[in-house]
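Build the 3D complex.
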Amino acid sequence: MSYSNQPSPNDVGVAVVGAGYWGPNLIRNFLASDTTWLWSVCDLNMDRARQVLGRHTSVEVTNDLQAILDDPRIQAVAIATPAGTHFGIAKACLEAGKHVLVEKPLALSSIEAERLVNVAAERNLTLMCDHTYCYTPAVRRIRHEATQGTLGRLQYIDSVRINLGIVQPDADVFWDLLPHDLSILDSILPAGIQPTAVSAIGVDPIGAGRSCVGYVSMTLPGEGIAHVHVSWLSPVKIRTTIIGGSHRYIVWDDVNPAQRLSIFERGVDVSTFQTPDDQRQMMVQYRSGDMLAPALVESEALADVVREFADCIRTGRRPLTDGTSGVRILKILEAVDASVAARGQLVPLEQQSIGALR
Amino acid sequence: MSYSNQPSPNDVGVAVVGAGYWGPNLIRNFLASDTTWLWSVCDLNMDRARQVLGRHTSVEVTNDLQAILDDPRIQAVAIATPAGTHFGIAKACLEAGKHVLVEKPLALSSIEAERLVNVAAERNLTLMCDHTYCYTPAVRRIRHEATQGTLGRLQYIDSVRINLGIVQPDADVFWDLLPHDLSILDSILPAGIQPTAVSAIGVDPIGAGRSCVGYVSMTLPGEGIAHVHVSWLSPVKIRTTIIGGSHRYIVWDDVNPAQRLSIFERGVDVSTFQTPDDQRQMMVQYRSGDMLAPALVESEALADVVREFADCIRTGRRPLTDGTSGVRILKILEAVDASVAARGQLVPLEQQSIGALR
Amino acid sequence: MSYSNQPSPNDVGVAVVGAGYWGPNLIRNFLASDTTWLWSVCDLNMDRARQVLGRHTSVEVTNDLQAILDDPRIQAVAIATPAGTHFGIAKACLEAGKHVLVEKPLALSSIEAERLVNVAAERNLTLMCDHTYCYTPAVRRIRHEATQGTLGRLQYIDSVRINLGIVQPDADVFWDLLPHDLSILDSILPAGIQPTAVSAIGVDPIGAGRSCVGYVSMTLPGEGIAHVHVSWLSPVKIRTTIIGGSHRYIVWDDVNPAQRLSIFERGVDVSTFQTPDDQRQMMVQYRSGDMLAPALVESEALADVVREFADCIRTGRRPLTDGTSGVRILKILEAVDASVAARGQLVPLEQQSIGALR
Amino acid sequence: MSYSNQPSPNDVGVAVVGAGYWGPNLIRNFLASDTTWLWSVCDLNMDRARQVLGRHTSVEVTNDLQAILDDPRIQAVAIATPAGTHFGIAKACLEAGKHVLVEKPLALSSIEAERLVNVAAERNLTLMCDHTYCYTPAVRRIRHEATQGTLGRLQYIDSVRINLGIVQPDADVFWDLLPHDLSILDSILPAGIQPTAVSAIGVDPIGAGRSCVGYVSMTLPGEGIAHVHVSWLSPVKIRTTIIGGSHRYIVWDDVNPAQRLSIFERGVDVSTFQTPDDQRQMMVQYRSGDMLAPALVESEALADVVREFADCIRTGRRPLTDGTSGVRILKILEAVDASVAARGQLVPLEQQSIGALR
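Done.
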């Protein structure tokens, strides 16, 4: 293939709005994509946008969102602005007929997120959440195992996502980190993540004015539980998720690139020789079987996000991480807020009919 | 020193009651001790006791507890029987004038445990809990750092103790594993572990009839929190405790013998440049400083348990892990039971005056 | 089974000679064995022997080897004395009609070792080397894979055995550590370890008067190579062996109990599309396939050494680690000495017909 | 600072020659640099160059080296072509008055490399080797410790650099991987790396036609030794270097980003209580002291290579990795070739006066 400096007719014309923390990653991947053409980067701070693009670029820079909305070359917009502005910008883009990719969280409330879903549906536009982790080779493999049934019934999910992190000015540790775990679980569980109840404890040991350490328990339909520990205050970086099924267990250690996934052949065996008088004869046998660490091809997940976005725009199919996944996650975040305020009280969630769309 | 096959007059005469799971470890360490003399092992199953002692031993075996109680050579008894029998055997031993070392838990309730404390106090006998972990080089070092004040104010303690484990017939995962973490914290915190409230979630995903996975949050006096995750259902063995202070953080990874302790020079820094109109200017700086991994001399903790027991018997001083520590731990376990039954509801604990004894 | 304090008629009567560094481990395992009866421990320092046995034992202690040789109850002797005395004591024991188990190295020269092999053969006695590693679950599994042919042709073996170690008074680092790797390879390779040539470099950076760091290369029959790095001067403990075959690779990390063995499904693929004019078109493809970590049952290898010794005595079969394996290892150690003296020069070894005995 | 799409007068005008394996990394860093201006990329395959630059670039592409040489805007050239062309292109660039940065190895022989050094010196041009590792935070810190004397006398350096790698068409494993270790040592040792003798063993177990596994021993002036193991055939990626000094040891584990450097407080202690009759009383004590893992700020080393190159061009100072370091490394590679051909024979090296230039 011969490279040219011109867009091809098949390229999806794109703009990125927001060149702060996450925007540069989106920009880099749109620049490298051979199915999209990046026309413009929009940021209130135009120098920041220029610095990200570098001095040898042909991409335009603007601080005027309206110019993006009015530009007929731009079919799609990727939004990486502060969370509080997601809803307004995404709604404006959709109403201007643009397909939209939004950094997490989709909005600040599930009500807002549902409105975005509805606007996109009415206009037959793609609304996609940039839940990057769902496109990593590790999560793809976990999803494959879960949907193929090799894990059996999911019983016990435990996720730890802790590190030294900067205290965000506009989000607590739940809103900052929990969407990662929720989106991952949402993409793994057959009906998305729809807990029946949530309990959360938030702690602010350093007096930062918001939760810096958090623990969340989610009761899953059936007997399962998912627990997530998030923290900005850990001197060690741990990103380990245990996905326990009735047949197999997966341990995902995301800070070990040489062996991210370990699939344990068997997990736990319950032999029930219940005698009439002695219910206590039920026993769990030690059964640590062989472990398989599948070879994963390393690839940049965000490149696949861009590819999925472009492909959905062209074909009209739903993205893996569509707007309804963003809604499900926001409903849980809202329940977490309520539980934290009530010092850990169990908050029930109604089963969302929206999940049935998948 | 010349070795002889006879007890010396200074030896504390000892019997071990219970030769099942933990008893053999106690027996081995009493046999190797040069300050105690093991006269007898008592087990209802005498063959089991004989098998533990081996065929070349001069130690006696009995299945008659009364013979132990009546034996004037025996000054002290170590109890490693099922938890339900601890109270009865310990009380009988104390009333027969024997010093007592009890495997965890000290009893099945704090009421029983307090009675044992009182009986021992009335008779000036040593009552010691075999909280083995408190005698490991790692916990000794953590205690040293905590009591010297080098960690600053303790803010955030997170402990994970998970593995594939056998479902106990007479205990859930809290009663099986949590006493380890509680006893460790009890020996580290200046006034022992006395949370103001406890919240716990127990899960039984495999239908074993009791909690196999558990999460416990404890609100510590001041702003701190301690959270513990225990599980019998993890295919990987993790034993990691993070002890976060305002000055330093310690990460204790007990499955890494080459580097059990990592002391991070600084943890988190809060710069508060609060402007009148903008509370959000409070920031946490990234401050991952140098890390020190102190050289620890590997030693068997149980040998130090035996040494402490013998030394306290001879000097009359309180053991590090005395009966009151057992009481504090049982009060928490009782609160955990109550919270699990109430699906995670916060259970307040009254501050125990007993802690002031230390 | 009911335990008694008397030997059974089937027990092999045993004595251990030497209660220093390794002897206590042998003693502990003979005490726990139910197929041998330990009558006596012999050491020039009788107090040391008594201390090892403890104060509650019925085992006799002596400093008189002749008493062992004359004792008709003693059918077999395990020798754990300084290496310089192995030959003399082993020869005396064999000539007195005793079966013999010798700590590594079997003797100080291959000539001596061959004499022991011959004496044992003449008298139909078991002569076994205590090559403990060969009885670990990890090495048993590697041997299984190698002999089943799942690895393919062995091409590349690399072993690292380094740690902070004490400088031995009577051995350099090669004689101290290399026998472990040699015995392991000897038990894995179908015809035992019989390199065609050896090259070794020894270094004494601290002026200890003997090699403290060593590198050994062995040319294996065929195209393969085995390389071993041994050191007393490493601040980190590494015990990693890579066994590379044409089909599969095994990585054995002995300091990681949770995952000692990793079997890589495929290793390296050579596609040879040699064009007449361009030999350089030969390519190795990246082929990191799935990895299997087999579940290994942890067990004490030395218990299996004792079991093998007793079983061979009773059945007359050859032990896995018989005298001829000791001879093969000593021939290599002698070649290492010669190569070190010649500053790394390649020293050829004649193929030992003794290997054919296996 | 306001960004513009025009070079500033202070920018060093640059071209990159070669857009294959390593070139893209150079291009990316020159694009991001604010002290250089990338005018052109030259590759025989212009499409490859265009693909690297992407479709939104203003950088020119050419397949004509002469155009680069003739371009007055271009003051400096970075060369990342196949090794066999380094000498010719670098010489042409220097003779055209351009400063030159060359990917390793500097040339195919030390004679060629010395000619480049001389040409650069005659014309007062900067000649720099892109020894990227020397600019990593880890190697910077090791160099700091070594030059400050905190390590004491260097005694024992052991480096392992193994992975599954592609068999290079124009280099064996020594020429492919060894320059990394040699350049690192060259930047750490006070007089650069100047061994007195080299011994190397190369193995080709897969019939690739060149060494795929290699072991190199280098005798350092004084008593020290450096040993390097390189391999393309390891299923596990290991990059561990032990730098042992008389006072401290450093272990550098480059695949562990959370703890790349471990500095062991003390290494090995030799107590010499030599009695007249017993030389063997010399002892090494176990002395594993505390370990410090310094906090390293992660940064891209190649950005610092670009910065160093630009800075040396502007100030005329010698780069850390100047042409003479390339010469020293090539002299060792030549000795390695000779030793491999002689099956590991020790090849002496004359001490290079060129090292004195530093």
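Chain A has two domains: 12-133+306-323, 134-299+324-357.
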